[in-house]
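I am still learning, so can you show me any protein sequence you like together with the matching structure tokens, please?
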Amino acid sequence: MFIWLKSSLKRKDNATVKPFIWSLFHWRLKEGQIPIAKQQDLLEQGISQDELNLYINYHYKKCFFYLIIYISCAQFLQSFAPDVSDIPYPIRVIKFVYDGTPFISLFELFYCYIYASVICFSMIYIYEVTLIVSSYLLSYIYSTPNSLLCTKLTKDQLDSFKLWLISLLFYSKPIYNQPYLSKNPNDFWNNRWHQCLKVLFVELGYKPILSFSPFKLQKFFGILAAFTVSGILHEYLLYSSNRYLTLEQFTFFWFQAIVLIIWDFTMNSKEEKTKEDQEHVLKKIRNILFMNIFAIFTIPWFMEPYIRCEHYNTVMHFVKKN
């Protein structure tokens, strides 16, 4: 909604702004970016029923798979919740560096990793359901041209609605694009992690700060601003649901911003070498392993506040804990 309001306020005098519903899947390619000739072909020929049936069957399988994994992991979270220290995770890490005090157990690391996975699985599952419902709706429009929906809308409205559905179903990025295959922080946050929220943070944090920053530092301040918005949002979600505030969420995202800035600075200074490295299969595997290890040891910083609040009790489960 914020993005839509921003577009409405900044529109040119003669420009038209599409209704709010068009911004619901803001991270996808918009129908306007589908070539005009392709748009006409899609409207005249449509998507065949066989193609839609294959699409629906494929996403039913994905939906069922993610639901089973989600239910299993959610039950694990509730049944085997560890006792987490009240001392924030980064403080424990600093103490470990100074005096060798253990900062976390292997099981807690594994538990936090599963917890983060459950969050991904739940959102992917909801998105898959949305795709299935949308594909049935598109199939209904094609198969029943005299339906109430088709007769109530004008031709332009119906064409726009068809293109919106086609764009969502066939021209959209996945909401999570295999984050466990990330090769570096930039790849993780820009290409693989929550693509919907990413656009929100860029629009509300990154872009506005550019006009207030020195040219050479615009990108760095923009990254900090985007992650600041993310940190505030996550702190608000945790506080509103559990009345719990420690700023661990906020500092986690600032830490990630600093890591991303350092990575971008390093990559820009060694750009050609980095590209050559990434083309080598063994170095790709090395980078993926490094990112997974980095994620495993930083996820507790983000997840521990939820564990202390017993937030795992709010996830869907089908077996009651005794």
